[in-house]
């Protein structure tokens, strides 16, 4: 036989080769393995081909090129990293043997190889499948196993044993569970080798099925049945790697089969057309012969189609139907994505309601990736217009869900994709109100959602434009279409704005009805709440940003400006018959200046479009290309030079519009006035802005005008004109101020009419706004050499009128105080430290300035203290608030850090300021009606049920009549509460202003504390309201926690931390006791919020700093003493309702135990027992009312037990001798609490070597009981935790009586029997807690403790060895004595 290598045949030329025995010679055309020294093995990494014998040329194999810097594929390294064997040629190995007998070749085309040619891999596999089916099928099943991360393999016999598939998989599963492998497998692994595994596996399976269909082996071989037998069984495995990988492979096979089935369907249609054409073209025998061939071909196609339908149905029924609702969201998402692929590949079979409904069901999936996959699948369906008729029923059924997802889904990506689907449905399936609902997303908080809605809005806007132009004669010009577009855009914005307001009101009503008002306010876009005014955009700004690239009316600011310059009121002044005479009822522009009805704006539309114009000009400058910014700015300036005066004149009477128009000068390049020699226009611009500034007092208008002043003053080339105009403005303001008070000697008490008060208030407001941006201190003190009163004196006299308490003058006085405060700030900027020895220094001048500043400041401070926290002042509420904020601001500026003129607040004034803040908090809280508002009857009934069910022996004092009264009043209270909830609108203008003013007050108070103007001890007022006043208020408590942590850890001022924390906790819980809040939730959250005050953690929760434990213990003990007094009062007064609420305070203290140690826990435990004993409170062991106290006590016990276990880790314990037994060391560990108890009872005895005798107990006598009472009175005994005792020299009782100490009688060797419970004398004892029974560690068996009973039976005598052995395995059994004392008893385990 010749050894010359033969060329490899193409797929079309290959024929099936019958299997041969191992002894047979391989067929011709196949390569033999060369000798060990052959050139093929050593040098050529790829197999050599024989010369082609077929006339049909085969395309050369294409391989992927390795990218630069990419490492060569190393299968051994991949196997080492992934722990997956490299023994499968299709998966990872280079030197592979698909058939051990017939095919031996080197393949670099494994799936894991990033440079593999997967088409060649599929062809080689199919060739081996024809020659040796069993081995080839085994290789592809092993590929599935390796893809699952399993190293097990199947052979040629196992792979076709379909009945043994389940048993084999069970074995593989058990083996995989026993292996120490990570949870990652190729589909989910983060290893670089598996980065493209999913894509490569998808490509290989697709090419494999397509090639098999082309060769016909898909229909003749057992490829698909074998894969189905294994993959379907693996898709139901409990192992996630098996289930996920098998599902993925099944879905990919199904997708490939869908592509083949679609091709077969087209081939069947083509065959049918050929048969029809053949019948028409031929007749007779020739036609019969042709039809016979076509019939044979048609029969073959039908056979293929039937097989494909069977394959597709099996995968859908056995895999998809079960896995699309898998617990793993990744598997569910894969199923949904595959279903979308099937819709596009084989719509004839899958695009039916039976399959579309699965997409509708998963639209409500809790996992966002699954919902996103469903929306993407729908997008692929709706993008084909030919599918519209088949999806009509589905659309009508699930359209509501799609609208909900687009507007309210929590995942932004899902919303963006859903908007794309609704864009495809906008023209055919959505009603007008539904389109408006979707269009409201243009105001959404998510920037991505606003951008995604652009195409949808464009369609709505375009339809509106066409409606405006319907019926116009002739061809519509571009200018007319552009103007109509502006009108249409204004129309839709007004409609959507009104719809948005209604939607917000509806949301608030829904929240109010559910009792959750103000708890979940709608998230505002960041553009609406920017840090600086320049960053804040209104609704128009959001719209412009979102629609700039989609709606021409937004980006075409020139047309927008032209439309706004038109007089839209002209058409309204025209008579109705004149308008009716026009064609189609449309008013056309004529010589009289009428505006065409197609673009005539309404009042609301004009207001909105002015905002759009300002935002559009801002955005045009922002998006200008690099190098074109100046050109764009100059174009805007040239247009505004002509248009701005007309806009100012047209809208000067409308405050909202003029505020936006005054924002336009800041967009201009003012140097163009000088370059174009238009100084007259520049002067007129100054005059127009000054006129608006002097005509309006609205803060928004004043700020816009001042912004325009600042921009004009920044033009240095026009400084002469600017200075001249500013002098004119100052003269105007001075004249207005003096004219308003002319002829009055004593302004402080003079009478002013209403108009004069309004004029003075407006003047002071203008001066305050102007002085906040410009130093006008010289103008304020100018008196022309004493010829007239200075502005400072006049404004100071107006501020003094605050003592009169006139509410109508509150605005004037508030603005006066702000103006005076700003003036002092400007004066303070001139102060500087001067060296007295400096000859060149201006010491006298600085001293004069300092004296003047101090005089004015002290005078103002005296006035502010009187107005803000004075006791005799009759100041209006608004004046009081302004005075308080000005007082805080002045003390922040002249605080302790000021080097020249520092001033401090007296302690009394500080406490008054804190009291004022407390009063403002309560006043603001009254305006809130939300989840914190208690509903007394409902809560009382719930608490009463808890008490009745708790089994408390005291029972309930309320009878049936009381319950009836409660039930009767319950409905009324609920109705009144619901009614009060509905009356509050958190988004109303008044509510928002109130919230803003309150937050501004709180911010000022916190800043004053941070700067040292107020003492840190006053922060407890704010902390006590944590969780009650909203998230914004809670945000400002974070700096307070940081300040307390700094005081305690850095400044060693732990006493201050104790005071503030205790005050905050007590005041927070007092609101619970008083019924101000419904439960203790806010107080518990406050305790958790204060936890960083005690401990500072770093990376990986490492403890960096801790507060001294004594202060933490002091906080706990102070809180326990406080609540114990409250409980005692409620217990004495039999106030069970308040008692139940008071006991919940223990829940508040539990979070604060996170940073304490064992000894600290013992001190707290001892103090708790002491205060409860002194309060004569009996803790019930079964009542649910005392559950918070038991949980608190259990937490203390756990801390003590944890540290004790940690302390014994260094010991080497002895081997256990039996179940439930302990070693000697375990028994001899005496807890520190027991030692404290023994130290109080008697002095410690001298140590004695082991073995020690058994503990003895003496019979209790009346003398013992009396002595116990004396011991209890001397000091409370701490209950012992259930830990093993330390060795003692001899046994004794935990209490020691006088009679027993004097008795010469020696104690018996074994314990005396205890008297029966009935025989125990009734002696009064101090009530104690249940800690003696409840403090049981988790690691102690249930039978380790037993209550001692009276044993009358005789027992044999025990030897010393038995005693020692029993002592070695004994466990403590603490139990309360009848008299209430503590006694240690041990139960011996016999064996």
From TrEMBL:
Q: Where is the composition biased (Low complexity)?
A: 1296-1309
One short Pfam family name for this protein? HEAT_SCC3-SA
Q: Where is the composition biased (Basic and acidic residues)?
A: 515-524, 1232-1241
Q: Where is the composition biased (Polar residues)?
A: 1323-1333
Acidic residues: compositionally biased ranges: 504-514, 938-959, 1222-1231
SCD domain location is: 320-405
Q: Which GO terms describe its cellular component?
A: chromatin; cohesin complex; nucleus
Read off the PROSITE patterns from this record: SCD
Region annotated Disordered, chain positions? 1-72, 504-531, 927-986, 1204-1391
Q: Name one GO molecular function term.
A: chromatin binding
Basic residues: compositionally biased ranges: 47-65, 1249-1259
GO biological processes: sister chromatid cohesion
For this protein, the record's InterPro entries field holds: ARM-like, ARM-type_fold, Cohesin_Scc3/SA, HEAT_SCC3-SA, SCD, STAG
Q: What is this protein called?
A: SCD domain-containing protein
Origin species: Favolaschia claudopus
């Amino acid at each position: 036989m010749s050894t010359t290598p033969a060329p490899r045949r193409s797929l079309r030329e290959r024929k099936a080769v019958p299997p041969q025995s191992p002894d047979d010679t391989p067929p011709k055309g196949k390569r033999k393995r060369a000798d060990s020294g052959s050139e093929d093995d050593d040098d050529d990494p790829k197999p050599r081909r024989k010369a082609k014998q077929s006339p049909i040329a085969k395309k050369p194999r294409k391989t992927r090129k390795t990218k630069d810097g990419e490492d060569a594929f190393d299968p051994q390294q991949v196997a080492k990293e992934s722990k997956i064997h490299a023994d499968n040629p299709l998966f990872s190995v280079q030197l592979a043997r698909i058939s051990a007998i017939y095919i031996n070749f080197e393949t670099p085309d494994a799936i894991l190889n990033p440079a593999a040619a997967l088409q060649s891999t599929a062809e080689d596999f199919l060739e081996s499948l024809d020659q040796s089916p069993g081995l080839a099928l085994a290789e592809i099943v092993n590929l599935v196993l390796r893809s699952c991360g399993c190293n097990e393999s199947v052979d040629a016999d196992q792979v076709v044993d379909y009945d043994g598939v389940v048993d084999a998989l069970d074995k593989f599963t058990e083996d995989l569970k026993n292996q120490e492998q990570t949870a990652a497998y190729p589909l989910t692994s983060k290893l670089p080798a598996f980065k493209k595994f999913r894509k490569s596996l998808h490509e290989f399976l697709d090419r494999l099925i397509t090639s098999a269909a082309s060769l016909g082996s898909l229909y003749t071989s057992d490829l698909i049945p074998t894969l189905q037998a294994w993959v379907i069984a693996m898709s139901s495995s409990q192992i996630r790697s098996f289930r996920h990988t098998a599902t993925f492979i099944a879905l990919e096979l199904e997708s490939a089969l869908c592509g083949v089935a679609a091709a077969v369907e087209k081939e069947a249609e083509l065959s049918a057309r050929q048969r029809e054409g053949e019948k028409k073209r031929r007749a007779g025998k020739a036609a019969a012969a042709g039809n016979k061939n076509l019939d044979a071909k048609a029969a073959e196609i039908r056979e293929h189609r039937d097989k494909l339908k069977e394959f597709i149905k099996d995968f859908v029924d056995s895999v998809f139907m079960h896995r699309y609702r898998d617990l793993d969201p990744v598997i569910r998402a894969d199923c949904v994505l595959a279903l979308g692929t099937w819709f596009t590949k084989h719509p004839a079979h899958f695009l039916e309601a039976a399959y579309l409904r699965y997409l509708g069901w998963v639209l409500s999936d809790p996992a966002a990736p699954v919902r996103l996959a469903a929306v993407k699948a729908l997008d692929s369906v709706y993008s084909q217009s030919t599918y519209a008729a088949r999806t009509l029923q589905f659309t009508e059924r699930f359209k509501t869900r799609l609208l909900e997802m687009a507007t309210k889904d929590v995942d932004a990506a899902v919303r963006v994709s859903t908007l794309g689907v609704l864009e495809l449905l906008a023209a055919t399936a959505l009603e007008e109100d539904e389109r408006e609902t979707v269009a409201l997303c243009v105001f959404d908080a998510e920037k991505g959602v606003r951008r995604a809605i652009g195409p949808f809005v464009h369609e709505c806007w375009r339809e509106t434009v066409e409606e405006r132009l319907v019926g116009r004669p002739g061809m519509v010009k571009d200018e007319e279409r552009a103007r109509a577009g502006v009108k249409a855009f204004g129309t839709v914005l007004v409609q959507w704005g009104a719809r948005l307001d209604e939607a917000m009101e509806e949301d608030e009503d829904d929240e109010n009805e559910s009792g959750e008002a103000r708890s979940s306010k709608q998230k505002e876009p960041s553009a609406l709440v920017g840090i600086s005014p320049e960053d804040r955009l209104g609704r128009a700004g959001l719209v412009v940003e979102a629609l700039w690239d989609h709606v021409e009316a937004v980006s075409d600011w020139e047309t927008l400006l032209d439309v706004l310059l038109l007089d839209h009121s002209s058409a309204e002044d025209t008579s109705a018959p004149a308008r009716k005479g026009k064609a189609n009822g449309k008013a056309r522009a004529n010589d009289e200046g009428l505006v065409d009805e197609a673009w005539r704006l309404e009042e609301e539309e004009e207001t909105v479009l002015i905002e759009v114009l300002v935002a559009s000009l801002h955005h045009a400058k922002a998006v200008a290309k690099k190098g074109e910014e100046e050109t764009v700015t100059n174009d805007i300036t040239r247009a505004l030079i002509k248009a701005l005066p007309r806009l100012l004149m047209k809208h000067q009477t409308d405050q909202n519009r003029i505020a936006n128009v005054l924002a336009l000068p800041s967009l201009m390049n003012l140097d163009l006035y000088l370059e174009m020699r238009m100084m007259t226009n520049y002067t007129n611009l100054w005059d127009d802005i000054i006129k608006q500034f002097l005509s309006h007092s609205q803060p928004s208008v004043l700020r816009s005008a001042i912004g325009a002043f600042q921009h004009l003053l920044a033009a240095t080339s026009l400084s002469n004109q600017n200075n001249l105009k500013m002098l004119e403005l100052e003269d105007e303001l001075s004249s207005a101020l003096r004219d308003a008070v002319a002829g009055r000697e004593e302004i402080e008490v003079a009478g002013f009419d209403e108009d004069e008060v309004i004029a003075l208030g407006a003047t002071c407001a203008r001066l305050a706004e102007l002085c906040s941006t410009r130093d006008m201190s010289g103008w304020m003190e100018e008196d022309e050499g004493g010829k007239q009163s200075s502005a400072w004196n006049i404004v100071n006299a107006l501020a003094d009128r605050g003592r009169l308490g006139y509410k109508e003058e509150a605005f004037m006085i508030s603005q006066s105080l702000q103006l005076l405060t700003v003036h002092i700030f400007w004066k303070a900027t001139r102060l500087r430290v001067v060296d007295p020895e400096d000859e060149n220094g201006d010491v006298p001048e600085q001293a004069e300035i300092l004296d003047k500043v101090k005089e004015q400041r002290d005078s103002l401070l005296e006035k502010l203290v009187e107005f803000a926290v004075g006791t005799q002042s009759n100041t209006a509420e608004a004046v009081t608030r302004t005075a308080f904020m000005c007082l805080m601001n002045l003390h922040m500026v002249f605080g302790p850090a000021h080097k020249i003129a520092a001033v401090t607040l007296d302690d009394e004034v500080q406490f008054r300021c804190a009291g004022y803040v407390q009063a403002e908090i309560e006043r603001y809280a009254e305006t809130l009606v939300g989840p914190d508002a208690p509903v007394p009857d409902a809560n009382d009934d719930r608490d009463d049920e808890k008490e009745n069910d708790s089994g408390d022996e005291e029972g309930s004092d309320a009878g049936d009549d009381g319950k009836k009264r409660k039930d009767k009043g319950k409905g009324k209270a609920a109705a009144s509460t619901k009614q009060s909830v509905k009356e509050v609108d958190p988004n109303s203008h008044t509510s928002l202003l109130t919230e803003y003013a309150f937050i501004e007050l709180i911010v000022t108070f916190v800043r004053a504390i941070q700067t040292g103007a107020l003492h840190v001890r006053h922060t407890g007022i704010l902390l006590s309201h944590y969780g009650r006043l909203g998230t914004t208020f809670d945000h400002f408590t974070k700096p307070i926690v940081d300040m307390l942590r700094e005081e305690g850890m850095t400044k060693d001022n732990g006493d201050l931390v104790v005071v503030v924390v205790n005050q905050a906790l007590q005041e927070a819980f007092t609101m619970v006791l008083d019924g101000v809040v419904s439960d203790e939730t806010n107080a518990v959250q406050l305790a958790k919020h204060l936890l960083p005050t005690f401990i500072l953690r770093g990376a990986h929760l490492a403890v960096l700093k801790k507060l001294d434990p004594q202060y933490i213990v002091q906080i706990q003990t102070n809180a326990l003493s406080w609540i114990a007094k409250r409980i005692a009062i409620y217990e004495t007064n039999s106030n069970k309702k308040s008692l139940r609420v008071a006991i919940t305070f223990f829940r508040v203290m539990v979070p604060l135990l996170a940073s304490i140690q064992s000894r600290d826990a013992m001190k707290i435990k001892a103090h708790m027992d002491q205060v409860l004993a002194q309060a004569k409170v009996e803790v019930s062991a079964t009542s649910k009312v005392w559950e918070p106290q038991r949980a608190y006590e259990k937490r203390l016990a756990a801390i003590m037990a944890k540290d004790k276990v940690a302390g014994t880790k260094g010991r080497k314990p002895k081997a256990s001798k039996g179940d439930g037994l302990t070693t000697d060391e375990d028994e001899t560990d005496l807890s520190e609490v027991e030692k404290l108890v023994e130290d109080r009872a008697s002095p410690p005895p001298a140590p004695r070597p082991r073995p020690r005798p058994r503990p003895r107990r003496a019979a209790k006598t009346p003398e013992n009981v009396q002595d116990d009472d004396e011991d209890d009175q001397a000091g409370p005994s701490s209950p012992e935790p259930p830990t093993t005792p330390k060795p003692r020299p001899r046994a004794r009782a935990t209490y020691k009586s006088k009679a027993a100490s004097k008795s010469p009688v020696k104690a018996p060797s074994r314990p005396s029997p205890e008297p029966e419970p009935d025989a125990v004398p009734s002696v009064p004892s101090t009530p104690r807690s249940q800690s003696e029974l409840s403090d049981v560690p988790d690691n102690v068996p249930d039978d380790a403790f037993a209550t001692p009973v009276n044993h009358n039976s005789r027992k044999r005598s025990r030897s010393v060895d038995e005693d020692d052995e029993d002592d070695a395995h004994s466990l403590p059994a603490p139990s309360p004595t009848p008299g209430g004392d503590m006694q240690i008893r041990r139960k011996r385990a016999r064996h």
